[in-house]
Amino acid sequence: MARMASGGRHGLAQSLFQVGGNVGSSLGPVLAAFIVIPWGQSSIGWFSAAALLAITVLFAVGNWCRRERAAPPRAADDTWPSGPICRGAGSVGRS
Fold first, then answer.
1. Euclidean distance between the first and final Cα of the chain, in Å?
2. Considering the entire predicted model, what is its pTM?
């Protein structure tokens, strides 16, 4: 997805994607502490609801990505980038 949203600046998009993941991983426990300490353990359910929403969104994006890969090739004058948009974790390089 980062490659698709990059607008041609693939290195910048990958860098922002990685930094965003690291920031999220580091801020998650801190934000959880700021929520759990004042409101108790029952507030953890709200984090679960947010995680369930994120899972639902990512599942929908994954299905869309699979449909795009299975679709017939687009015309050459189309505005989509060439090559596969969605790649598996084991893919290396461009096809």
1. 16
2. 0.53
